[in-house]
Write a structure and sequence with these properties.
Blueprint (H helix, E strand, L loop, with lengths): L5 E3 H8 L3 H9 L6 E3 L2 E5 H15 L4 H13 L4 H47 L2
Antiparallel strand pairs: 1-3, 2-3
Helix pairs in contact: 1-2, 3-4, 4-5
Length: 129
């Protein structure tokens, strides 16, 4: 760490287990706006916290647009009530989507296991000839 208050791209990438390229990607999407120390980009603790929220949002399946909306609201909503309500709504929507996907996935698994079983039976019949 540069100091107790700042991180470089490689330091932040290593600490969060991502590539420097990923950090630069979030910069190009204007989700992060690092400061400059000469030619070096430096990140504050606030930038680090923002990046952690971005990564968490991506891991949970939110789009970059949704993450941006959440982060922008965080900056403007001092009480965070609007932010919490919006987050709850998006989380509920994501839960519903995942529940639907799980049902579809379970159905596909049943079908694939049935096909696998039919293949096993067919092979056993061929071996018995």
């Amino acid at each position: 760490m540069i100091g107790d208050e700042f991180y470089t791209v490689p330091e932040l990438a290593k600490e969060l287990g991502i590539t420097p390229r990923a950090i630069r990607f979030y910069e190009t999407k204007e989700l992060l706006s690092p400061q400059r120390a000469g030619t070096t980009r430096v990140y504050t603790r606030k930038d680090r916290a923002r990046l952690i929220l971005i990564l968490r949002g991506k891991r949970l399946g939110f789009s970059l647009a949704e993450i941006r909306e959440f982060l922008d609201l965080y900056e403007t909503d001092v009480d965070h009530v609007e932010q919490i309500l919006m987050l709850r709504k998006k989380v509920r929507h994501r839960i519903d989507d995942l529940e639907e996907q799980r049902i579809e996935l379970e159905s596909v698994l049943v079908e694939l296991k049935d096909i696998e079983s039919q293949c096993d039976e067919a092979l056993q019949e061929k071996e018995g000839i």
